[in-house]
Write a structure and sequence with these properties.
The structure holds two protein chains of two kinds.
Chain A (H helix, E strand, L loop, with lengths): L32 H11 L1 H37 L10 H12 L6 H13 L15 H12 L1 H4 L22 H5 L9 H13 L13 H6 L11 H14 L5 H20 L6 H6 L3 H8 L10 H21 L6 H18 L14
Helix pairs in contact in A: 1-3, 1-10, 2-3, 2-4, 2-10, 3-4, 3-5, 4-5, 5-15, 10-13, 11-13, 11-14, 14-15
Chain B lengths: L31 E2 L5 E5 L9 E2 L6 E2 L4 E4 L8 E2 L4 E3 L3 E4 L5 E9 L7 H9 L12 H10 L26 E5 L9 H8 L1 H15 L3 E7 L3 H10 L6 E5 L8 H9 L14 E5 H13 L5 E7 L7 E6 L4 H7 L7 E6 L6 E2 L13 E6 H4 L12 H5 L6 H9 L3 H6 L10 H5 L6 H11 L4
Helix pairs in contact in B: 2-4, 2-7, 3-5, 4-5, 4-7, 11-14
The chains are: A mainly alpha, B alpha/beta.
């Protein structure tokens, strides 16, 4: 249905032009796809704020590069190469760019962001057919690609900046402008990496040093820890997530499923043997809340029905815990989401709701 | 006694939408009698079921209320002359729903027509008894059938079928539907406020006929004056008012039954299957008139409203009068009117020809402007699931529409395409402006027989 053109001024013909169209003739005019994408961007503002505060120019650089490259990629692949109308106005490429930027390590080099953005849009979205057709979360596709291609720069070690050299050391390489602006937080390991090492040490029977203990919960909540710009502040994620739930852009079933699964499994693991690594550490540390509210709730790649969304959320939470505790990776949100994305068509088929009054009876 | 909405006002059904009501345009406009028209055209099928069979010749003199076509079967309805005059040769008219149906034109004679307050008094005035025992159940059903009464809520199902006692499926509840959930429409509301007595009488007669033990008048909570009027008129009878939460489509019979009695009408079945019969308040008043006064269905209240009409009104009109006459009486279309709808904005049909006649199922004429119907361009489905969140029947509209678009009938059946009642909640909500109802309707029409 095309937009109704404004009535032309025709003073000589006072009779109005009546047309016919199918019902319904009333629409919720405030609700558009673009508005929903804008809501995600608004919800990410607290997270972006903390990111700029903790990671300063690194965060600004990644956010700028990712968003610009995602928009450029969509124009190149969708508009130029496939000769379709300009699509960046719907805001989905910008959202992918922002989420990608917030999920990469701030210390990663600029080309990681750029390549990640092109892969996210090109392979994660346009290759499947554009908006609404992709199976996998585009930002996570981009991130998975750069994780595997630049394992050192994007893996657990990629988060830590080397400490500044001693000013009296004359043989050290000169420090770049960007490095000089970095905050001290960026020289620490991420909380989950610390946790992984701690678990390994405890498993070997050794006593951990003081600086090898888990950081306390308050920095995890507020964000004064190292990590991806999006994941550090659990509080910012909660505030933004709450906004999305109120606006109904994200359904509550997905974050509820993720958080619920983590609480149950984390509680079990804590009871079974990680005395210093409580459920709250799992919830507030790492990208769990960021993933629960902003990544797993991606509209296109999550199930259609409320029951399906709950199953999806629980699956993501369970896989995150599995990867965090049983694999070599300290964080598991990205893989958990991608794996559950693959199951979404099946979940949709399994959760076809029963119509009120029962299914259509078969003709005898 | 089980608790119902009478005990807990605000009962509702799951999901649904809240479109802006716009009832203030016409809700305080007392019903005006449309001046008697010079000509009416009476379609021979204005109801669900078989067409009526013509019983008059062209150029025959008929009086207001004379039979001009008799019922064409059990599920059918008779048609009566709605003005006094002379018939003409049968023609074909195109109704707003797209059907081409045969119709009988009647040109008014020279005699003074029944008009104005005399007509109003004839239709709604006088004493309305509250003791149905004076009439036999079979007598009631026969009077209703002879009067050509069909559901005035829009579905136009022949009412006498609902007034028969059924041994295999006994009826225990009569629901009188005063919800009027469509935005803009206020015809049922004005009837309840101005003439609640015939509604009460008709409800008592209907329950006496089909054996219902409980009579509930369902009214949405945005109509406090109607609730008050019906309660007062029903004082001393066993009729109760069930106040339900204002939500679209609360007036749909399945949703009303679910909200008030908690029972689910089986898909493809009838309310009869759960022991309930639903009649519209206008139909109840017509039942009273047919049984107590022996008069057939010839007139009804129609709301003419919307930002595109100069003076919104509620009108008492004869069936068969052209839409153009109603519009003219209300001051005509405004300059920015773009769509004239028979019914309300959610399920009504856009009219292409204003000379089409008002039928028994016409509850209103809604005239919308360009601003009202402005719609963003259609974009891709992002599988947000909003349509699933609002569908009152718990379907997945986006999948059904996708299946219909690609003519994948297995997928369409898997998602229960035939259960859809085309209420419009999904298309109303869709952020991508997808024409969901249109696609589903196309799919249903093209669905191959099993």
């Amino acid at each position: 249905m095309t937009e109704i053109p404004a009535q032309p001024a025709r003073e000589q013909e006072p009779a109005p032009v009546i047309h016919v169209a199918p019902a319904p003739h009333a629409y919720d005019q405030a609700l558009t796809t673009r508005r929903m994408m804008l809501d995600v961007l608004i919800a990410l503002l607290p997270v972006v704020g903390v990111a700029l505060y903790v990671f300063r120019l690194y965060a600004a650089m990644h956010i700028g590069i990712c968003i610009a490259c995602c928009l450029a990629a969509e124009v190149l692949f969708h508009t130029v190469m496939r000769r379709k109308p300009l699509s960046i106005g719907d805001g989905s490429a910008a959202v992918t760019g922002l989420i990608l930027a917030l999920s990469l390590p701030a210390a990663a080099p600029w080309y990681v962001s750029a390549l990640g953005a092109f892969v996210a849009i090109g392979i994660g979205k346009v290759l499947f057919g554009g908006l609404g057709q992709n199976i996998f979360n585009p930002a996570m596709v981009g991130r998975a690609f750069v994780l595997l291609a630049f394992a050192g720069a994007v893996g657990a070690s990629g988060y830590k900046l080397a400490p500044l050299p001693d000013p009296s050391d004359k043989t050290a390489k000169p420090v770049g402008f960007l490095r000089r602006t970095a905050s001290d937080t960026m020289t620490h390991a991420t909380p989950l990496t610390v946790g992984k090492e701690l678990a390994r040490k405890l498993a070997e029977g050794k006593t951990p040093e003081k600086d090898e203990e888990m950081p306390s919960l308050v920095p995890l909540l507020l964000g004064n820890t190292n990590g991806s710009p999006g994941e550090t502040s659990a509080l910012a994620c909660l505030v933004g997530g709450l906004y999305l739930l109120i606006r109904r852009t994200a359904s509550w079933q997905i974050p509820a499923g993720v958080i619920g699964a983590v609480i149950v499994i984390g509680g079990l693991m804590h009871a079974l043997g990680h005395p210093r690594f409580t459920v709250l550490h799992h919830l507030l540390g790492g990208a769990l809340l960021f993933g629960a509210f902003f990544i797993a709730t991606d509209l296109v790649t999550s199930p259609l029905t409320p029951k399906g969304k709950l199953i999806f959320g629980v699956g993501v939470g369970a896989l995150v815990m599995l990867i965090r505790t049983l694999s070599n990776y300290p964080e598991g949100v990205m893989f958990a989401v991608l794996l559950m994305n693959a199951l979404v068509p099946l979940i949709n088929r399994w959760t076809i709701p029963r119509p009120v009054g029962g299914p259509v009876p078969k003709k005898k | 006694m089980t608790a119902t909405a009478t005990d807990r006002p605000g009962a509702t059904f799951p999901r649904g939408v809240h479109p802006p009501e716009h009832k203030e345009l016409s809700k305080d406009a007392a019903v005006e009698v449309l001046p008697a028209p010079a000509r009416v055209t009476l379609p021979l099928i204005q109801h669900l079921g078989a067409p009526a069979k013509l019983t008059v010749q062209p150029k025959q003199d008929v009086a207001l209320g004379d039979v001009i076509a008799e019922a064409g079967g059990f599920i059918s309805a008779a048609v009566h002359a709605t003005i006094t005059g002379k018939t003409a040769k049968p023609t074909k008219v195109t109704l707003p729903n797209g059907r081409h149906v045969p119709a009988v034109p009647i040109a008014a004679g020279d005699a003074e027509p029944l008009d104005g307050e005399a007509l109003r008094a004839d239709v709604f005035g006088g004493d309305w008894p509250t003791d149905p025992a004076a009439y036999e159940p079979k007598q009631i059903a026969e009077a209703v059938s002879n009067a050509g009464i069909v559901g005035l809520g829009g579905a136009a199902f022949p009412t006498h079928v609902k007034l028969l006692q059924n041994d295999k499926k006994p009826i225990d509840t009569l629901l009188v539907n005063g919800c009027e959930c469509e935005p803009y429409l206020t015809a049922d509301y004005r009837l309840m406020v101005e003439h609640p007595e015939p509604i009460v009488t008709g409800a008592l007669l209907a329950a006496h006929a089909n054996g219902a033990e409980r009579i509930l008048v369902a009214i949405e909570d945005n109509k406090p004056e109607a609730i008050e009027a019906i309660r007062k008129a029903a004082g001393g009878t066993e009729i109760e008012v069930a106040v339900v939460r204002t939500k679209y489509p609360q007036g749909g019979e399945k949703q009303a039954i679910l909200a008030i009695t908690g029972r689910e009408v089986p898909t493809g079945g009838l309310p009869l299957d759960v022991g309930v019969v639903v009649v519209n308040v206008g139909t109840a008043a017509a039942i009273a008139r047919a049984v107590v006064r022996g008069k057939p269905l010839t007139h009804r209240i129609v709301t003419v409203t919307g930002a595109g009409i100069a003076r919104p009104k509620n009108l008492l009109v004869p069936i068969g009068v052209p839409y153009a006459e109603l519009i003219e009486f209300c001051g005509g279309l405004t300059a920015d009117a773009v769509r004239v709808i028979a019914g309300g904005p959610m399920m009504g049909f856009a009219i292409g020809d204003l000379s089409a006649p008002v039928t028994k199922g016409t509850s209103g004429v809604t005239v919308l402007t360009a601003d009202d119907v402005r719609r963003a361009s259609e974009t891709a489905c992002v599988r947000c699931g909003r349509c699933v969140d609002v569908c009152p029947l718990n379907l997945v509209p986006t999948r059904i529409a996708l299946a219909a678009k690609h003519q994948d009938w297995d997928l369409a059946r898997k998602y229960h395409i035939q259960a859809c009642m085309e209420c419009g909640c999904c298309a109303y909500t869709c952020p991508a402006s997808l024409p969901l109802v249109q696609l589903i309707r196309m799919g249903k029409a093209q669905l191959p027989k099993e």
